[in-house]
TrEMBL record:
<feature type="transmembrane region" description="Helical">
    <location>
        <begin position="62"/>
        <end position="83"/>
    </location>
</feature>
<keyword id="KW-0472">Membrane</keyword>
<feature type="transmembrane region" description="Helical">
    <location>
        <begin position="90"/>
        <end position="110"/>
    </location>
</feature>
<dbReference type="InterPro" id="IPR045590">
    <property type="entry name" value="DUF6463"/>
</dbReference>
<keyword id="KW-1133">Transmembrane helix</keyword>
<protein>
    <submittedName>
        <fullName>Uncharacterized protein</fullName>
    </submittedName>
</protein>
<keyword id="KW-0812">Transmembrane</keyword>
<dbReference type="Pfam" id="PF20064">
    <property type="entry name" value="DUF6463"/>
</dbReference>
């Protein structure tokens, strides 16, 4: 097994659990708003135009921005991409890990208590995996090697 594969799989698992858990928790806590989107149409979640001078309820808009409009969907996608790349033996760049760790750290500090800090672990695992990945040796061509 590639030395970088295991940390990347753990990182992607953490991201998938965080994103999916966030959406499931929203569905349980704001079930009335979510079912209202199905009744009125998904476009009714956050209306773009004022309908009769009403921009929609703040609770409805909060449910949207806490759910499908939140970090959960991109985090799930990043987790799936990381899982896929780990399976192919491709290293995720350390910059992605640094960005994820910084974003989750700031989010965790601003929204205490929250599971944001688990995202810091995920970012650190991506950084660790990037450092474990063997770097290709530079190939030197000598005058003698040329035909």
């Amino acid at each position: 097994m590639n030395a970088a594969k295991r940390p990347l799989r753990w990182a992607s698992g953490i991201m998938l659990v965080l994103g999916t858990g966030h959406l499931l928790l929203l569905t349980l806590l704001a079930q009335e708003d979510v079912t209202g989107w199905v009744d009125r149409g998904v476009w009714a979640a956050v209306p773009l135009a004022l309908a009769d001078g009403d921009a929609g309820s703040p609770q409805n808009q909060l449910a949207f921005w806490a759910g499908p409009g939140s970090f959960a969907v991109p985090l799930i996608l990043l987790g799936c991409l990381t899982w896929h790349l780990a399976g192919r033996g491709v290293a995720v760049p350390a910059g992605i890990g640094w960005g994820l760790a910084a974003w989750c750290f700031v989010g965790g500090v601003l929204l205490v208590p929250s599971p944001y800090f688990a995202g810091v672990v995920s970012g650190a695992l991506i950084i660790l995996a990037a450092r474990k990945e063997p770097r290709p040796q530079a190939t030197r061509t000598r005058q003698n090697d040329l035909p």
